Amino acid sequence: MNSLALAYKTAGDLDKALPLYERTLQLKRQVHGPDHDSTLTTLGNLAFAHHAAGDIDKALLMFEQRYDLTRARLGPDHADTRRAMSRWLRACIEAERTEDVIALIDRILVEVRRTLEPDSPDLADRLAHYALQLLHAGAPARAEALLRECLDIRNRTQPQKWTTYHARAMLGRALLDQARYAEAEPLLLSGYDEMKQREASIPDAGRPRLTETVEALIALYQAMERRDDAARWRGIHARYVAAA
Question: What CA–CA distance (Å, rounded) separates 138 from 135?
Fold first, then answer.
């Protein structure tokens, strides 16, 4: 039944997929219980289907239920709990529910701060991750606060790592998104230059951070109407694109 629902969803026939997912969920709750892995998988599938059908409120409620049940059974730091939270957060971002994103990240960070030391590099990593989500959600002022805390930790504990300079560039982007151009420029420039110097140490998954910083510099100089500078950074961006 679950597989047939997936087939209908993949084919775009949500009118047939949704009732099958709902019946599957009902049966799994009866047989396995509400927090069994299989039950939670179907709950997630149903949430995705409602999201695809445009029923955002129902989808977000189900993503929340899936997270709460997973957290109650496995704890806040389990990989499955984090994945459930990540999917709920992405759904909020995709739905452009900025206030929900802010509230959800605040809730996550309360739990994170209970388990990590204030100067922990792991805390800095979490702050950077959630700051990026806030930037995607259109909440640059909230992202700025997290990035300043992240950068303070990294400057003291990891002053030479490329991620420290990426945090600097992200802070520049947060200021750019608030039209604070004079403050954003030195952070973006130094962030890019220092990451470029450490390019050999950046893993493949981190390479897009250089391109994203160049894109932010292009946006900055376009906003400042500095056409020559924008053109120079577009040329640098073109080289990254050609090398990809």
Answer: 5
- The string of pLDDT tens digits covering residues 169-219 is 999 999 999 999 999 999 999 999 999 999 999 999 999 999 999 999 999
Distances 152 to 55, 106, 119, 184, 185 between C-alpha atoms, Å: 41, 19, 9, 17, 19
Question: In whole numbers, what is the pLDDT of the chain averaged over residues?
Answer: 93
pLDDT at residue 56 is higher than 80: yes
Q: Are 5 and 49 in contact (CB under 8 A)?
A: yes
In 3D, which of 181, 244, 174 has the Cα closest to residue 211? 244
Distance CA 149, CA 141 (A): 13
**Which residues make Cβ contacts (< 8 Å) with residue 21, sequence separation at least 6?**
2, 5, 9, 42, 45, 46, 49
Residue showing tokens 């992405």:
90
Q: Which two tokens stand for residue 21?
A: 């997912």
Q: Spell 105-140 as b/e; 16+ CB within 10 A means b.
A: beebbeebeeebeeeebebbbbbbebbbbbbebebb
Q: How many residues does the chain have?
A: 244
Q: How far apart are CA 37 and CA 4, in angstroms?
A: 19
- pLDDT (0 to 100) of residue 111: 84
| pLDDT tens digit sequence for 145-166 | 999 999 999 999 999 999 999 9
pLDDT above 90 covers a percentage of the chain that reads 79
**Hunting for tokens 């160049």 — which residue is that?**
214
Q: Interior CA angle at 153 toward 149 and 158, to 5°? A: 145
pTM for the model stands at 0.80
Average the pLDDT over 95-122 and give the result.
Answer: 90
